[in-house]
Each structure stands twice: as structure tokens, then as C-alpha cells.
Amino acid sequence: MTLNDLYLLSPELSLVALASLLLLLDLVVPRKDLLASLAVVCLVVPIGFSLALWLGLDGTGIEPVNTGILADMLVVDQFGLFFKFLVL
Hints:
The protein has five helices and two strands. With 88 residues, it is mainly alpha-helical. The protein has a two-stranded antiparallel sheet. A hairpin with an 8-residue loop joins strand 1 (65-66) and strand 2 (75-76).
């Protein structure tokens, strides 16, 4: 796994990391309204990574990129990024 592979997986990795952080903070923070606002702010990071992938995909965002990890089952293209935005 190279740094480029991690860059292409950055929206998913950041979403998992921030969701884990929010779950751990929920155990120790008594103010739950603070966690709700922090959860909304934490969604900005994966959206930013997805936007960076959208704008940086071969300059125009048209050419799909095979990552080479997971036996070429992961393809980062505009179609996949659209659904990442939709889910986020």
C-alpha cells in the first residue's frame, strides 16, 4: 500500500477515524449537545477529502483511477465520488 492508495482511501479512512473518536468522546463528555455539533463539523473532513479527489482526479475528474489495492476492486471515479457525497 502506497501513499497514493491512502490518499485515494482518505474519505473512508477519515470517516472511520472521526466516527471512532466521536464514540469515545461520547463516553466521557457530559454535554451531548457539544457532540452533536462536533459530529457535523467532523463531516467536513471527509467531504473535503472527497472534494480534493474530485478536483484532483487527472486534472478534470474524468479518468478513473484503479488503486491496485483490494485486487483492483476499488475504482475512484466521478460516479463513485458522487455517491460518497450523497452518503455524506
